[in-house]
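Lab meeting tomorrow. Please check the following:
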Amino acid sequence: MPPAKKRTRSYDPVKTRAAVLAQFAHVREAVATLAPDVLERPTRLAGWTVYDLAAHLARAVDVVARNLADPAPAPGRPEVTLPDWPFATATAAAAPAGTPDARPDLAALYADVAARTGQLLPGAEDTRLVRTVLGTMTLADHLVTRTVELCVHTDDLNDAVPGLDIPYDRQALAACTRLLADALAVKAPGGSVEVRVPPYAVVQCVEGPKHTRGTPPNVVETDPLTWIRLAAGRRAWADELDGGRVAASGERADLSALLPVLSR
């Protein structure tokens, strides 16, 4: 895990809660349209079917409600903070959902998750600690991580099922983009390269001469979905650069050795 520490970005807890629920609703609506044969299609995640992705997305939100249903840990310093989370995910990579005869019905699973979340989330304090497989986190931070799970795997589903076109809640996409951009700045601390992901994030990273004013000598710019795909290892730097989806200028603007930042 990178040792560098930066000032943690703040997120509006109210907007984050709404974003998680809105993106989950988008996914639930789309999953309900998938035919049984489509659910058995492979995806770009090795060993995962469309069903596995759909089930994982439901469980990625359900973990919030299940954590809230458990007794709260004793108040104290959280064991995992947002800058740590992307690097810790490698130790908690999820497995596919299981054999077909052991799978829950997706409609019932999504309905159950929606009901539990709707019951338990509104009354929970943002500062309450919750237990995760990586360690305790505040509820507010844990919800930000859910926007990453939802947006990354929404893109996986859209890739696996052409024409599905699940939309992205703007606040969910913003939170996901910002957390993954901040993770790059933690992984490669410095100020010689400016990474721009309009309209959501700008970070400086990579050791070297620090830019203070004027046009930075090393600039990388891309759109939010391309950045998420690069940060999550879904696309290769060279391919996105060659395809014109990434603009990079300056001798230090090659980020290929620093990507991905998320291990899922």
Remarks:
- The radius of gyration is 19 Å.
- The beta strands are 129-132, 135-138, 193-197, 201-205, 219-222, 246-249.
